[in-house]
């Protein structure tokens, strides 16, 4: 009982300090106000450090505590954050990128964004995916998969070639089937799934005597090059033969989707 009351010695009122001093037993044991504060602060620091460490441990590997994924992807380990200054890409600013235009070099630049990125996923990781995927024929213990970013880029390229169909007459069929419509809606969903929160700015332009919106802001990005390098290193060697049935004994953790 005595020990308990000691814990709650009020810290501020002189009256109670007097009371504490007046009891010899309490006087001997009562820690000074400063010491109590010191101990409380130390305990709080330790608690915060432990909580921080737990939060870090529980976040997905490869992620800092500020970015979390609700679902597993084998590419989480390749995430690296970087800042990038966007290019306006407007012809009049002379800042065209190598993905603008319709030359063979431009076509190759687009191809390089997503070619050779079909993944070879180890069975243990295939079991952790939110959706079931298919075993690779002749490559025991590996499953096929593709990161959606490469599919989105492929789709954007399809749209690009359809827009410039004079330069890509063979793409005309895309207009007729559902492919372009599918591509547009796929990119819409992807943009809405990962909203880019970079703030676009407006600045005064004296020549134009107007406030002008800009397209050259600095963005916080996941390094695309890192993800693509990782995908190339994890890519399937042979093209996927879609006509072969493969028996699959994978025990799927998330039910059968
Ligand atoms: C990807 O496309 C580029 C451009 O066409 C080509 O040079 C490169 O060899 C391709 N890479 C693979 C692995 O197919
Ligand atoms: C202002 O506008 C003019 C005309 O569009 C452009 O040439 C110039 O680069 C702009 N200046 C700035 C600081 O953005
Ligand atoms: C993936 O899983 C979700 C959630 O259960 C399901 O709605 C969707 O149809 C699945 N898709 C495929 C291709 O398995």
UniProtKB/TrEMBL annotation:
One Pfam family recorded for the sequence: UstYa
Keyword Ribonucleoprotein applies: no
The keyword Plastid appears for this protein: no
Domain of life: Eukaryota
Pathway it works in: Mycotoxin biosynthesis
Transmembrane segments annotated in the record for this chain: 36-56
Protein name: Tat pathway signal sequence
Native source species: Cylindrobasidium torrendii FP15055 ss-10
């Amino acid at each position: 009982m005595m020990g308990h009351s000691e814990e709650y010695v009020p810290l501020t009122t002189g009256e109670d300090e007097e009371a504490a001093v007046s009891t010899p037993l309490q006087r001997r044991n009562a820690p000074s106000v400063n010491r109590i504060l010191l101990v409380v602060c130390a305990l709080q620091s330790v608690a915060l450090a432990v909580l921080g460490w737990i939060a870090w441990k529980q976040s997905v590997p490869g992620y800092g505590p500020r970015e979390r994924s609700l679902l597993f992807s084998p590419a989480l380990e390749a995430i690296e954050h970087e800042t990038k200054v966007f290019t306006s890409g407007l012809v009049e600013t002379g800042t065209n990128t190598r993905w603008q235009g319709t030359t063979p070099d431009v076509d190759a630049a687009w191809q390089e964004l997503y070619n050779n990125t079909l993944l070879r996923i180890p069975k243990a990781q295939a079991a952790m995916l939110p959706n079931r995927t298919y075993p690779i024929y002749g490559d025991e213990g590996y499953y096929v998969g593709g990161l959606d970013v490469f599919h989105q880029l492929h789709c954007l390229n399809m749209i690009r070639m359809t827009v410039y169909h004079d330069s890509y007459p063979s793409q005309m069929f895309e207009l007729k089937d559902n492919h372009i419509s599918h591509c547009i809606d796929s990119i819409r969903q992807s943009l809405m799934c990962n909203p880019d929160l970079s703030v676009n700015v407006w600045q005064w332009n004296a020549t134009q005597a107007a406030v002008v919106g800009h397209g050259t802001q600095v963005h916080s990005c996941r390094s695309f090059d890192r993800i693509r390098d990782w995908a190339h290193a994890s890519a399937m060697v042979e093209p996927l033969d879609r006509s072969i049935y493969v028996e699959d004994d994978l025990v799927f953790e998330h039910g059968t989707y």
